[in-house]
Design a protein that fits this description.
mainly alpha; 10 helices
């Protein structure tokens, strides 16, 4: 990675945070600025949202523990972590070892949000108003109405680049986190003609 790559990563992260906060960042923002308390004052839901933006932009993955670590990280540490993960992902691509393991591929086919991703989306959309998506049970009840359905579809598109028109008849069946995950898996893996949406 070159200095230009580091600057690009830093610019992206700063832009994403600025967009999330919907306000300019303090002039004193530097690589030593904490992401959380005493710095940019991001909270746990913001860390999840930021991680999703970074994962999409750079084609990397953060574990739940890594996202939790944002709370004590500085801006410079996050940029360094992204730079390292990007270099590792590039090396994996060069050696042909990239991609999910066979187990995780079976659990979430390519292009299908994982169960945890669904929990993140429900938390980001405030359909299940919690700060930590990990606290959401797999069988957590979900109530979708026309407004929350539109917001969920918006977040699905924003966070995963998936445009899916969930028909209103199906909404009655989407009563839990696992039901939504199963619907997404079926809709996104079905042949285009069979989906009918």
């Amino acid at each position: 990675m070159t200095t230009t790559d580091t600057e690009r990563i830093s610019d992206f992260v700063l832009g994403a945070i600025r967009d999330m906060l919907n306000m300019p960042l303090p002039d004193t923002t530097s690589p030593d600025t904490p992401l959380g308390a005493g710095g940019l004052e991001l909270e746990s839901l913001s860390y999840v949202e930021l991680s999703v933006h970074i994962e999409r932009e750079f084609g990397i993955q953060f574990s739940d523990e890594a996202v939790d670590g944002f709370a004590t990280a500085t801006l410079g540490e996050l940029v360094s972590d992204i730079r390292t993960r990007t270099a590792e992902a590039d090396a994996d691509t060069d050696t042909g070892t990239s991609g999910p393991s066979a187990e995780s591929a079976a659990a979430a086919p390519a292009g299908v949000p994982s169960l945890f991703d669904v929990k993140r989306l429900l938390a980001l959309s405030q359909i299940i108003p919690v700060a930590d998506p990990e606290s959401i049970a797999d069988d957590e009840p979900v109530v979708l109405d026309s407004l929350t359905l539109v917001w969920f579809q918006y977040q699905l598109n924003e966070q995963h680049g998936i445009e899916l028109d969930i028909d209103h008849a199906a909404v009655e069946e989407l009563t839990s986190v696992t039901a939504i995950h199963a619907y997404l898996r079926d809709a996104l893996t079905a042949p285009t003609e069979a989906v009918g949406r």
